[in-house]
Amino acid sequence: MAQRIIGIMGALPEEINGVVNLLQNKKEHRFGKRIYYTGTINNQDVVVVYSRIGKVAAAATVSTLILKFNITELIFTGVAGGIASDLKIGDIVLGTELVQHDMDATPLFPQFEIPLIGKSHFKTDSEFLKLGENSIQHILENSYLHQVIDTEDLDQFNIHHPKLHLGLIASGDQFFKDSEQKNNLLSNLPDTKCVEMEGAAVAQVCYEFGIPFIVIRTISDEADQHSTIDFMKFTEKISNIYSIEIIKNIIK
Ligand code: SAH
C-alpha cells in the first residue's frame, strides 16, 4: 500500500501555528511564498501549511500539497461565520458538502455550477466524516474543553455547551459582515450551515485529483454586523486550541 501522507491546512497562521508545534522531526520548505512544514504527528507523516485567505490562495496551496508533497488525504481546519440559526459561537461544523456561493456563470451554466465540471456541490470523504464525528464529539464534552481552554476565555465568548453540526459549507471571496449578505445566501442556498472563504476551493481541487478530504470549521462569528469583533482573539484563544485537539484526536 502507498505511504499515507496527510496534508493539514488552514487559512490563517493563528489557525495552524498550534498544529505546527505538534510536529516531530519538523522541517521547513518554502514554495510560492508559503511555508510548508513536514514532520510526524503520532508517527503519521503530515505536511502542515496555512494558505492565507481566499479561494485562489487555498487552491494554489492544496495543489502544491498534492503535486510537490504527494499528500494522499487532506484535513482543512479553521473558523467560519454561522449561517443556520441554531449555530452558536464555539460550535463546530463538519462539512458533508461544499459549494462556491460566488460562482455564477448564468445563463451559460446553472448558478453555482463549476463550468465544464458539471458539479456545484463537492462531497467530503465518508470515512473521514465518521472519524471526525467521533473525535469532535469527544472534544466538545464540557470536561474536555475545560481542561484545554481557560474558563475565562470560554465565558468571554459564551461557549457553554458547544455542539457539532454536519452539513453544507458555502465558500466565496467575501467576508460576511451583515444580515443582508446572510439572508441573500440563505435564500439561494437554504441548507447552508456556515460560510467561509476557502473550503469549496480546496474541495474542487481535491475532487479533481481524487484526494479524500474533510473540512472542519469552528464558528467564530454569526456572519453579521458583529462578525469582526474580537476575531483575532477568538482565533488565538479558541480556534487554535480546537484545531490542536481535533488534529490530535483524528491522527492517532
Ligand atoms: N479580521 C480578520 C479577517 C479574517 S477573514 C483579519 O483581520 O485577518 C476570515 C477568515 O475566517 C477567512 O479565512 C474565512 O474562511 C473565515 N471566516 C470567518 N468568519 C467569516 C465570515 N463571517 N465570512 C466569511 N469568512 C469567514
TrEMBL record:
Keyword Hydrolase: yes
Keywords on record: Amino-acid biosynthesis, Glycosidase, Hydrolase, Methionine biosynthesis
A molecular function (GO) term: adenosylhomocysteine nucleosidase activity
Pfam families documented for this protein: PNP_UDP_1 (PF01048)
Alphabetical list of InterPro entries matching this protein: MTA_SAH_Nsdase, Nucleoside_phosphorylase_d, Nucleoside_phosphorylase_sf
Biological pathway: Amino-acid biosynthesis; L-methionine biosynthesis via salvage pathway; S-methyl-5-thio-alpha-D-ribose 1-phosphate from S-methyl-5'-thioadenosine (hydrolase route): step 1/2
Top-rank lineage group of the source organism: Bacteria
Keyword Amino-acid biosynthesis in annotation: yes
Gene3D superfamilies reported for this sequence: Nucleoside phosphorylase domain
SUPFAM superfamilies hit by this protein: Purine and uridine phosphorylases
Annotated EC: 3.2.2.9
Record domain Nucleoside phosphorylase: where: 6-251
A biological-process GO annotation: L-methionine salvage from S-adenosylmethionine
GO cellular component: cytosol
Principal EC category: hydrolase
PANTHER family given in the database record: 5'-METHYLTHIOADENOSINE/S-ADENOSYLHOMOCYSTEINE NUCLEOSIDASE (PTHR46832), 5'-METHYLTHIOADENOSINE_S-ADENOSYLHOMOCYSTEINE NUCLEOSIDASE (PTHR46832:SF1)
Official protein name in the record: adenosylhomocysteine nucleosidase
Lineage, opening ranks: Bacteria, Pseudomonadati, Bacteroidota, Flavobacteriia, Flavobacteriales
